[in-house]
Amino acid sequence: MPHKVKAVISRVKDAPVEVVDIVVPDPGPGEVVVDVLTTGVCHTDLHYKLGGIGDEYPYLLGHESTAVVSQIGENVTNVKVGDRVILNWRAVCGQCRACAKGQPKYCFNTFNATQKMTLEDGTELSPALGIGSFAEKTLVHSGQCTIVDEDADPAAVGLLGCGVMAGIGAAINTGEVKRGESVAVIGCGGVGAAAIAGAQLAGATTIIAVDVNADKLEGAKKFGATHTVDSSKVDAVEAIQDLTGGFGADVVIDAVGRPETYKQAFYARDLAGRVVLVGVPTPQMKLELPLLDVFGRGGSLKSSWYGDCLPSHDFPMLVEQYKLGRLDLDSFVTERITIDQIEEAFAKMHEGTVLRSVVEL
């Protein structure tokens, strides 16, 4: 029978979030209900709240989670009741043109649960990224569940569900950082810090962290930054060039997603270098660049969707790196909070005083 559980919703644009009772149905074919253990407070949830993603309110927020499978629907074979899982928003279909080309990490038709979770009065909820896990239970497609070891801290590994995976993947998968290369990361919040960690994991030898916040720059060092640049005091492009022999970095990752920072990334790379955009811009933002510069500098300009990851491959691999001590996921967890503290966590995120607040359910 359906479950009534506590959850966090955004009822209208830019209003404070609310903790309310919602109704989670029993899973249908291909669906599972999970008991949520932890959920990171991600910038994407704030974008939903502020109307930066859509207007399909009310939204059921939360998506960066570790959970335990509590019910499975018909035809579910990849997980069973009791499995510890990380939730993902790229449940590949296996049939779209990207999957048919052998590129499932770009799947254009990812699966979500078919049924809707609702408020008690029957109002349908729009789950953030098809997950909606600021809740005691949530309903997802079985393909959104990736099994992980139970001995890993759920608060730490759950962050692979979105922001940390986005940053690490921007470096390793999209930027294709190679051993001995130089990397600059603009913006050292959660995603940027993860990109720095990914660059270190890939073997980069010069890793430059760029931000306007001294505390974030200091924190970037523990994830692998070899140099820091305070772009409120110096020109970021010139500083990156100075630290790379006057040439620019092999890979520059924009983890902010603004026209100003993208231009910095574009001009701070070496000739034939790679620019990776992983910061999420707003719909109103416009970029203007001289086309001759785009042509003359060569290289590649890439956007990184979810770190161009394949959860079934990347999540277990990165959890193993964490367990081996090569990837410090614990340091991304700034604080552990309860479900009624999410509005405060959004404020801290806006102030730049946390990498991740993690809700423990």
TrEMBL record:
Enoyl reductase (ER) domain span: 10-359
Protein family (similarity comment): Belongs to the zinc-containing alcohol dehydrogenase family.
InterPro entries: ADH-like_C, ADH-like_N, ER, GroES-like_sf, MycoS_dep_FDH, NAD(P)-bd_dom_sf
PANTHER family referenced in this protein's UniProt entry, alphabetically: ALCOHOL DEHYDROGENASE (PTHR43880), ALCOHOL DEHYDROGENASE CLASS-3 (PTHR43880:SF12)
Signal peptide range: none
Domain of life: Bacteria
Organism field: Glutamicibacter halophytocola
Protein name, per record: S-(Hydroxymethyl)mycothiol dehydrogenase
Documented EC number(s): 1.1.1.306
Alphabetically ordered keywords of this record: Metal-binding, NAD, Oxidoreductase, Zinc
